[in-house]
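Quick one, tokens below:
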């Protein structure tokens, strides 16, 4: 893949500045920002080259990205819908409790009022007239004072519970309306997701048809491999400029990547289906490993690093590259969604992407590769044991 003249000029211009022997925090941050700018320029150049080289590949890139956006919107609305449904259930429970409490208070007050009616309306006056014992009168008046205040409190409580029930019923109505809106949005996003899947399938079918019709599988694989090598070469050149050493810097107390052999966790759950060095279609060999994963399964960073690339690339789909410093990089291909952008720092266990269908659209897969400078290294030398199921 060719490097555009604009990109070359940009890299040469940015590479002309030399770093001093010491750097302040602001100078270091400025250099890191320049590294990110160089990498973004590389990403734009790579995608421009893809579009110029292969219109079908550019269509597939657009379809993959549209599918990722549609899936993200659908998942967001689905989660909001579930949250709204749970909130509605809670509100209905609260409304039921408020209605039950209102009924209890109403019944208790009705019983007291009925007793008062049977006994006469002026209970205190009747007690005063009927009392034959003057010493008993203060006690009776105190008692009826308590009764009167209790009835007043119950009436106030009744009004308060009625207002609470009205508020609960109103909240239930509002949440019902919100849930209906989310349900409509979910149906729209589901339709958009289905359309994005159909568009991707059509673009993929055109690509496969072209490969088959010209018997160009080997040519296609070599072209895709060359695109990856060119991308990594450009990234290494950008990271070799001033500030590049700090881009994937580990920080104090963290071990260099080269010391982690046999200690890293697997980036995803799944089954190992292709090993480093094994033959693949077209007579080429795998430079990494391939895992059969679960659809929308989480892809996690195995170690500290910084995102050096997060975009589409022919043959690997949505690709994310982590720079771990010291010339070490890890690659994650065939993703359904990329959850990090260029410049983002990650730590072990951070979710960086979601797996999806592979290039053949047959099952979710993850391609994982480890690079030291320009050399691909067997990832299993760094990973602990076998992949978790």
């Amino acid at each position: 893949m060719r490097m555009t003249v604009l990109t070359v000029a940009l890299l040469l211009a940015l590479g002309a500045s030399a770093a001093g022997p010491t750097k302040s925090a602001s100078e270091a941050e400025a250099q890191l920002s320049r590294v990110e700018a160089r990498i973004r320029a590389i990403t734009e150049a790579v995608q421009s080259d893809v579009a110029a080289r292969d219109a079908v590949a550019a269509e597939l890139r657009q379809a993959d990205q549209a599918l990722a956006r549609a899936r993200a919107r659908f998942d967001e609305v689905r989660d909001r819908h579930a949250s709204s449904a749970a909130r509605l259930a809670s509100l209905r429970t609260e409304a039921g409790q408020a209605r039950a409490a209102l009924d209890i208070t109403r019944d208790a007050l009705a019983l007291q009022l009925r007793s008062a009616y049977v006994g006469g309306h002026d209970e205190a006056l009747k007690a005063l007239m009927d009392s034959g014992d003057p010493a008993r009168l203060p006690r009776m008046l105190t008692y009826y004072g308590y009764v009167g205040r209790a009835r007043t409190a119950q009436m106030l409580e009744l009004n308060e519970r009625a207002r609470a029930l009205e508020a609960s019923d109103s909240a239930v109505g509002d949440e019902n309306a919100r849930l209906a809106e989310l349900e409509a949005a979910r149906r729209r996003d589901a339709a958009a997701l289905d359309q994005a899947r159909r568009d991707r399938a059509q673009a993929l079918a055109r690509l496969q048809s072209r490969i088959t019709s010209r018997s160009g599988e080997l040519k296609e694989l070599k072209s895709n491999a060359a695109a990856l090598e060119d991308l990594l070469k450009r990234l290494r050149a950008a990271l070799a400029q001033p500030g590049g050493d700090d881009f994937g810097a580990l920080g104090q107390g963290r071990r260099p990547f080269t010391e982690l052999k046999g200690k890293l966790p697997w980036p995803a759950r799944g089954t190992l289906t292709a090993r480093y060095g094994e033959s693949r279609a077209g007579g080429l060999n795998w430079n990494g490993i391939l895992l059969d994963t679960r659809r929308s399964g989480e892809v996690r960073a195995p170690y500290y690093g910084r995102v050096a690339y997060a975009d589409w690339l022919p043959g690997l789909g949505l690709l994310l590259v982590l720079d771990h410093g010291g010339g070490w990089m890890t690659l994650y291909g065939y993703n359904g969604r990329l959850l990090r952008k260029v410049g983002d720092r990650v730590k072990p266990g951070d979710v960086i992407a979601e797996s999806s269908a592979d290039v053949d659209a047959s099952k979710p897969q993850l391609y994982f590769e480890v690079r030291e400078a320009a050399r691909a290294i067997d990832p299993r030398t760094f990973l602990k044991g076998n992949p978790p199921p």
